[in-house]
Amino acid sequence: MPAILSISGLSKSFGAVVVADETSFDVQEGSAVGILGPNGAGKTSLFNLITGTLRPNAGRIEFGGTDVTAQSAAKRCKMGIARSFQVPQPFGGMTVFENALVGATQGAGLSGRDAQTFVLEVLEATGLIDKANTRAGSLSLLDRKRLEMARALAAKPKLLLLDEIAGGLTDGECVALIETIRNVHASGTTIIWIEHVVHALLAVVEKLIVIDFGKKIAEGEPKAIMDSAEVKEIYLGVDPDV
Amino acid sequence: MMEWTNAIVQGILLGGLYALFAAGLSLIFGVMRLVNIAHGDLIVLAAYFGLTTTVLLGVHPFVALLFVVPVMAGLGYVLQRGLLNKTLGDDILPPLLVTFGLSVIIQNALLEGYTADPQKLNGGAIETASLQVGGLALGVLPLLTFGIAVAVIALLQWVFYATSLGRGFRAVSDNQDIAQIMGFNKSHIFGLAMALALAVTAIAGILLGMRTSFDPSVGGGRLIFGFEAVIIGGLGNLWGTLAGGVILGVAQTIGAKIDPGWQLLAGHIAFLVVLAVRPNGLFPRIDH
After folding, report:
1. Kind and range of the H or E run holding B22
2. Nearest residue of chain A to residue B288 (CA atoms)
3. What is the pLDDT of residues B23-63, one digit of tens each?
4. What whole-number distance in Å separates Cα of residue B17 and Cα of residue B23?
5. Could you tell me the fold of the domain covering A1-80+190-242?
6. Residue ranges covered by each domain of chain A
């Protein structure tokens, strides 16, 4: 399988704070990759670099074989990169339906009835269909998280970036979420998932990447990574709950 | 009694014109938080474009709209992308200063090009035509102006809440960063918003020019009326802007009825009273 996303030598720092340090990795088309790392390791910044809201100081990002390092965030969205946010950020003044419709018209390039039908499917799949006409600003936290997912999915992304989507969910909700993400993955969408709820992550991903202080410290098959002494010390040692 | 009723009805119709002054201002502020100090001068600029078109082509001012509206819209897009987008950021001062400068430039360019002589658009018979309704003589032009204002506001409302472009406006207004991640080109959306705003400005300018005489210096007054209508109605609410225009218009005609010298003062007092009692306007948007 060819790499849909290829990152090489990516570096970014804010003054003395390094959020990406010569990071390089490839993500195969159709795969699901998990990213682990302690708080402040640079995981969310990595997503910002991939979507284009942050510009790297050095390095190169290729998406689908094209160098997108200099492309705008809007352009990358239309090329097929969508993401959800750790802290949900819906368009508060719009309804749930309209929020997802933005994804369908902007990202997936649908229009008219096609867009509306597809959005309804997505809302159905993410459990938001009953709230389609609710203003997004008045949703509960769980529904906001669902909307993050729905809006990203409505863009029919080739590459879906999920940022801590399982945090704060009950076990039942988490199982439903895993099911949804598996279905998305099964339909051919490549997924990169940042998650602290490790059991949810391991239920989906085929590969793990561990980063700390902006540096990639391990990459490989999930079980091997979780068992490696390095990860236990750096990652699990910091957060004994996991 | 009839005289007072007449004053109120004339005020309502005048309010339609003020709502047209205000709609573009409201739209621009709503989408990109830009306070456009040059808005009044752009209205006057549109009136002068209308004058040139009617004189050169010998057409009625309403026909001139076919030319002036696209020209102003195009100007708006270029102005936004070429200049105003560069002033937008966390600081609200740069756009204020730049549009203030633009206001000075437009006024002086108009003085240079058209001199300071008062001008008027010749609307012909429609200017003096009136309808008798229950003892009141209603001017056809003011009635038409009010009708156009309602239609323009309804159209803007439809664009905002029922079209893909409107979703773009609202998304960018809501959260610029997220809107860009969702594939909206912010610069382009802002350009379209300014184009739409100046298209409305073009209509306002032509109607202004048919109603009263104008010269390059009257833009400031139109800007104040526009601001007052927006604030009275409540920021971000287009129908509220129409109501704001009507309240301002009625206050002015009632003031003029009491004493002709009080027309403008009464409008400003009504505005200050609303600002003191309801700082968010009478019909603020309840979105957030």
Report:
1. helix B2-32
2. A93
3. 999 999 989 989 999 999 999 999 999 999 999 999 999 99
4. 10
5. Rossmann fold (3.40.50)
6. 1-80+190-242
